[in-house]
Amino acid sequence: MIVRTFDGLQALTTPTPTWATSSPATLSLYDSRQAYAQIYRSQPNVRICVDFLARNIAQLAPHLFRRVSDTDRVRLEEHELARWLAKPNPSTRRYRLIETLIGDLGIYFEAFWLKVRYRDGAGRPAIGLVGLPPEEMRIYGGLLPTLFEWTSNGVKQPFPPSEIVYFNGYNPTVRLRGLSPLETLRRVLAEEAAAGDHRESYWRNASRMEGIWEQTKDAPNWTKEQQQSFREQWQEFAGSGSKVGMTAVGPRGMVYKQASFSARDSEYTLGGKLRREVCAAAYHIPQPMVGILDHATFSNIKEQHKHLYQDTLGPWLEMIQQEIEGQLLIECQDRDGVYIEFNIAAKLAGSFEEQASSLQALVGRPIMTANEGRARINLPSIKDDPSADQLAAQQGGPAATDQTPPGPGAAPPPSSATRGQSMPGDDGTAAAIEIGRTLEIWEGRVRSHVARVPLADRAQAFDARWSHELFADLTAVVEEDQARVIVQREVAALARALEAEALSDV
Which domain holds residue 445? Predict the structure, then answer.
């Protein structure tokens, strides 16, 4: 082949590349040949991995955005592509469309969507999407596909590339298009199928041990009729499920010797786990996600959950996003600055408690009103209290109460930097020293209590009961009005210190 540039492409011959046609979608397993779909139906390890990928990716809704600037994005909920993906056809919804797409990619490593052009209720041009079975598709072309052919019930229907959304796993290194992972796992799958057949035969034969009867030297000689009679009696005994658990008694001079491997000897259990590990590795899935929990702990499963969406599903999502943008977004009238992105942040956002703690630390005050909180637990809103629709003041931090003027004759409360030092009073330092000592003892109790929880959660563990305890301690030293002022300012100062410690640790 002689190739110049794109303005002139010439060839002396027109060879057909080996990767230009679809694979036969069948796999040889020892003495049989099975279709990919049959392997998916019969091999639990394959189905576990494929279904895991399909379900987790289908759960992530693809969102449309417009890039306004480097620091600004706008969500496009009514964009035409968003409508096409949300309702691809009358019998399919977005979840099933994506789930089927990943299932086809996991089994065949290629998938096909047919574009069905029509006009919606408002008279606008629209596109419906229908998944086509990969085993019924054939692709023609050299470096680029020039024709897609769908064969259904013996009828061949051609489609130009503009009418097909094509997802493939073409590998230019080995010049193979749509190389299924099942081909790479062929030996492992053949071993799993053989082990399953052996195990099924074992239970079908009433779990009996295979063996032979041997005749000792002093045993009497049998006639052919006696040998045939004993053979029939033994096969009836050993092959009958009703004889399970019963002890066989042989004739004089005959010894039974086992001639089969036990499940332990053949490493049936270990082999099955190894085959699942290999299948999970072929699909790049962390082992705890497919039920292999030998070395799983709470902490490493949590980290592997992040690894799943960042490293395992990330490349799949990026490939799907680019193909949809390159083959479907070009059909839309509105394309300026528009891009698609799967909502993976929703899966990595953490629990509600973790989000609430992080947001409160960032904002410094409650982020929900009382009625919003009641709505989350299905309680009716409070109608007759306007404050139920307002954000409460900062809890445990600087608030308006900090500005409360001290009462007559009140000594200024100590700050965190001056605790334990003399504080100016009206007529000396004795009261100030006692106040400082009381505050030191109180802060020691508080820090001893919050030290039991992680550093990031200590500000939330500092609750209102410590204010009441400090007030009770101070009223033994100063008047109640002065004690209230000191409590308000000291509680706010300690809360700020705990929050600052948590942020500095992060």
Answer: 407-505
Question: Which amino acid is it at 25?
Answer: A
The beta-carbon contacts of 157-164 under 8 Å, at least 24 apart in sequence, are 159/114, 162/115, 163/114, 163/115, 164/112, 164/113, 164/114, 164/115, 164/132
Of 463, 408, 415, give the one whose Cα is nearest residue 436: 415
DSSP letter at 3 equals: E
Answer whether residue 359 is part of any domain.
Answer: no
Q: What is the per-residue pLDDT across 366-425, written as a single tens digit (0 to 9) for each? A: 778 888 888 877 888 888 888 888 887 765 544 434 444 444 444 444 444 344 433 434
Residues 318 and 416 in one domain: no
- What pTM was estimated for this model as a whole? 0.58
Please write the tens of the pLDDT for every residue from 456-465. Answer: 777 677 667 7
Task: Indicate the residue type of 487.
Answer: V
Closest to 27 measured CA to CA, from 39, 44, 18, 19: 39
Number of domains composing the chain: 3
Q: For residue 167, which of 91, 80, 98 has the smallest C-alpha distance?
A: 98
Residue type, position 406, single letter: P
pLDDT at 15: 43
